[in-house]
Amino acid sequence: MQDVTDHDLTRLLLDAAEGDQVALATFIRHTQADVWRFCAHLVDPPAADDLTQEVYLRAMRTVSRFRGDASARTWLLVIARRVAVDEIRRRQRRRRLPDPSPPDAAPDGTDEVALHDLVDELAPDRRAAFVLTQLLGWSYQDAADVCEVPVGTIRSRVARARQQLIDRLDAAEEAGA
Question: What is 19-48 written as a DSSP string?
Answer without folding.
Answer: T-HHHHHHHHHHHHHHHHHHHHHHT-HHHH
